[in-house]
Structure formats: C-alpha cells, structure tokens
Write a structure and sequence with these properties.
Layout (H helix, E strand, L loop, with lengths): L6 H10 L6 H10 L2 H8 L5 H18 L24
Length: 89
C-alpha cells in the first residue's frame, strides 16, 4: 500500500509546474508537510495509483497555499470514484 509522501513526490509536483528548487529547499518543504493528514487521505483509497495521486494532490495543495506553485486548475487529483473508497479507514 502506497501512502507515504517523499521528497521525490515534492519534486514531481514542482516539476509539473516547471519550478526548480534545490535539494535543501525540497527537504524543507517535505518537513513542513502534514504527513499524518497525507497518510490518512491516501489510505482512504484502495488503488495504489489513486493513493499516489492523493499524496501528490495534497503536496500540490501545500505548495499552492505557500505560493510556490500557481493557484488554479490542479494537476493532481485523487479519483473520487475509487470503488472501494473508505474501506481502509
């Protein structure tokens, strides 16, 4: 089961917006994430692919709130039609 947010995930979201930051800045962002909240949100879904999208979506939200990527249409969205949603709580 995939539910953990990594520095690579932060990099993935930044790359999707063509934002380039150094490793130390990415580590600082990673440390600021609410990992418990990200874990709970991702584990709400059964599909590993949707779990991954949930993690990336939560990271994207954090980056948008902190002005690191532009607000607007999200690039990462967890599929709310996951057929076993809620069974892992």
């Amino acid at each position: 089961m995939f539910c953990e947010a990594t520095t690579d995930d932060v990099q993935t979201v930044l790359d999707s917006y063509d934002v380039s930051l150094g490793f130390q800045e990415i580590e600082e962002i990673h440390e600021q994430l609410d990992h418990d909240d990200i874990l709970a949100g991702a584990c709400y879904f059964c599909s590993p692919e949707i779990q991954k999208n949930s993690v990336l979506s939560d990271i994207e939200d954090h980056l948008q709130r902190n002005g690191l990527v532009p607000l607007g249409m999200k690039k990462f969205i967890a599929d709310e039609l996951d057929d076993c949603k809620g069974h892992n709580q």
